[in-house]
Design brief:
Helices cover about 65% and strands about 0% of the residues. By secondary structure, it is mainly α.
């Protein structure tokens, strides 16, 4: 492989993790949607077993896109305006997408720990279960919980994930990018969570 091809591959990998936006307490809706769609693309690369999660996230992104917004619009402000009108359809999309983001935040955190300790034989079923139980399980009915249990059993190993993301030759760089990505993910996800609490929205769903 020539140096140009190698550089192109690494540049592509570096773009796989678009950070979630947060500037002066604001979340730009366009950049948020771009980061969410990019994460969905990454999930798609992990295999068909993640299809239910992918489709759910895509559906919630479509709900958010129903907002009328400009390039400077803040997601939190859009939700506040919707809430003031007694509506919540698009905000529900944000709510469920944010729950999925928590799942991936927890998943990535466990993967980071494994990479930092060079533990490539980690039991990924346990990691998926930890992330699921710490995020969306309490909102799912029995059928959904059984479906996710099946996903856990069929999900890829850590080496398979690294190969699917084409980072097995640059694990150190990927680890650095993942740590940085997860920090922004946590900040934005937490800010959305706090918004719902401050606005007393979806209290019955918490």
């Amino acid at each position: 492989m020539d140096s140009t091809a190698t550089a192109t591959k690494k540049d592509s990998n570096a773009q796989d993790l678009i950070p979630f936006p947060h500037v002066n307490g604001k979340i730009n809706v366009i950049e948020f949607l771009e980061a969410a769609k990019n994460l969905i693309t990454l999930v798609d690369r992990l295999g068909k077993v993640f299809a239910p999660i992918k489709y759910d996230m895509e559906g919630n992104v479509e709900k958010i896109k129903k907002y009328e917004y400009s390039e400077d619009s803040c997601l939190l402000q859009l939700m506040a305006e919707e809430h003031s009108k007694g509506e919540s359809k698009s905000a529900e999309g944000v709510l469920w997408l944010n729950r999925a983001l928590l799942f991936f935040e927890l998943l990535f955190q466990e993967i980071i720990v494994s990479l930092q300790s060079d533990n490539y034989d980690v039991n990924m079923k346990n990691i998926y279960t930890i992330a699921y139980e710490g995020s969306v399980k309490k909102y799912h009915n029995w059928v959904s919980q059984q479906l996710f249990s099946l996903i856990c059993r069929m999900s890829p190993t850590l080496p398979q994930i690294l190969k699917a993301l084409e980072v097995e030759d640059d694990i150190s760089g990927f680890k650095t990018r993942l740590v940085s990505f997860n920090k922004t993910l946590h900040i934005v996800r937490s800010k959305i969570d706090n918004f719902f609490k401050d606005q007393n929205m979806f209290v019955e769903s918490k």
